[in-house]
Amino acid sequence: MAVAAPKAAKTQATLVIATRHEITAAGIETILRAAGHRVVARCSRENDLLRVLKANRPNIVMLSENIVGWEAARTVSRLRARNRSVAIIFVLEKRDAITAVDLLDLDVDGILLSGTCARSFIECVKSVHQGQKWIDPDLLRQFALAERSPQTMCNLTSREADVAHLILRGWHNKQIARELHLSEGTVKMHLHHIYEKFRLSGRTQLALSMASVSARKLLDH
Predict the structure, then answer these.
(1) Yes or no: is domain 12-135 CATH 3.40.1030.10?
(2) CA atoms of 60 and 53, how far apart (whole Å)
């Protein structure tokens, strides 16, 4: 009789960590291993990463900004060419190293700030492994913590605008429902209407689009 695989195996991600900082890599690996994931390799150079990607076929590559510098988009394209199915989490060293507009153009599945808490690393890997997009809430707050752009909000109802604003702040559906005294189903319905109005694929595009508008508005001033 066939024996079912343990539940942990279904949720375990296999990762490669690419950063020039050995101590940082070791710390991230410790955090992810404690959460039940498997780190198959650590790399400090882009060429090594490309070789490891081919040899190990990980689910996720955690790519640090210090590996790619200003050529993040080129490196991401090279990784995609080697393994189309791999998910990529980009780790930012500096908060001001990327703009909301850059994020819209960067073909990655998750974005983390290097100094974020252990829980954020775990949540990011879990979400990306499940096929979802994830962006560090602190990064979104940096772009526009309390900004409501009339250009973005003008076609929304007041309740939809409230939901969209909390999405920008990195809140989850359950938190939004509690804050606005709604059911999670109602929050999902509002999000569906927002996506249809702006032709967006999900909450990540919504948050980035709003942040992009707010960033441009700040620059104009």
Answers:
(1) no
(2) 10
Is CATH 1.10.10.10 the classification given to domain 142-220? Answer: yes
**What percentage of the chain carries pLDDT values higher than 90?**
30
Interatomic CA distance for residues 134 and 128, integer angstroms: 7
Are the C-beta atoms of 56 and 30 separated by less than 8 Å?
Answer: no
Quick one: pLDDT at residue 219? 37
Average pLDDT over residues 147-171: 69
Across the beta sheet with 60-64, what order do the strands follow?
38-43, 14-18, 60-64, 87-92, 110-113, 134-135
Residues 181-211 have pLDDT tens digits of: 999 999 999 988 888 887 777 776 676 666 5
Cβ neighbours of 16 (radius 10 Å):
24
